[in-house]
Amino acid sequence: MKNRKLLMIPGPIEFTPEVLRAMGMATTSHVAPNFIEVFGQALERLRQVFLCPSGQPFVIAGSGTLAMDTAAANLIEPGDKALVVNTGYFSDRFAAILERYGATVTQVRAPAIGDAPALEEVEAALKGDGYKLMTVTHVDTSTAVGADVKGLAALGREYGALVVVDGVCAVAGEEMRQEEWGIDLALTASQKAIGVPPGLALVVAGPRALDAFHNRQIPVGSYCSDWTKWLPIMEGYESRQPRYFGTPAVNLIWALNVSLGQILDEGMDARFARHRRLSEAFKAAITALGMKQVPVAPDKTATTLTASYYPDGVDRTVLGYIKEAGVILAGGLHPDIKTRYFRIGHMGAVSPSDILATVGAIEQGLAQVGYEFEAGAGLAAAQAVLRP
Ligand code: PMP
Fold it and tell me: Is the minimum distance from the CB of 12 to ligand 1 under 6 angstroms?
């Protein structure tokens, strides 16, 4: 019997064998001709995956937090006003990073955990003050709340704020059309729907964001995040001329290029549709098992992950039994409800059979902790959505 568990947390996710093979290959020089080609191609493909033909991609060794840091470091100057559309834990983090670079931050907060601020509230804030930049967390990984990025980006544009989207739990899973929707900077990390092991911070900056960077009055306050250092590197590799600032994460970039190729082979529209369908199947199973989700309404819910409250009388010990049944899930993250809910990531290369295996393991875990439910109800609900 295979002795491995299915990893269904909101990142790192399950990676394809082709991506993992690229991680295990002999490391090339960062200036080897075949690596230069791969890095150049990965940059071109990122533009396509973010649906931002006029964007400038940045691939830097680090995690999603570094991607957030580079956005703030390069776009904010001390005293700039920034608006954070706050849907939870990672929006708080963006506010802290912006403040670290000297921004005066105003936050529009969700009225309750699991909810998102209304567009009218965000518009009122944008109207009231001149903001240089606004941030939106596409999917708040702590609550599974999905923001109306398209609507928010349109508002940001209307009121002249640069629109920055934290797409760490979203890009290449959740529908996002960076250029068409007027998003000035979108960012993610490799370990989520992009489908590459942890270690790459990925950013695509549009023309308005680059203009704001070029028009800065004072130097960027972070040496390692400074686009003055990184822009020539990205432009260099894309024109197939290697340049050095910091050694690129060679194997991760090989793996990134493989994964981006797989994503584009699937096609962005097909990929968004697959994520929606699998999410719908999984959420139907959770409901059929008598569990309530953290997002307050279906239109506030992400497709890349599900956050579900434990049923009455059940706590996180159920996660141990689910793991014994073969599937690793994540506990709660939002400090106010941490012990009351759990999270399931279903993004990237996830398949219908992964969804069914996960629902089956959850049913086994629930049965073991004595929760009463109709056996197979979750599986039947998921199958009803998945059946062709
Ligand atoms: N933003 C969001 C929405 C996230 O989900 C995460 C990671 N879970 C981060 C930012 C931070 O990314 P990392 O852990 O890779 O630094």
Answer: no
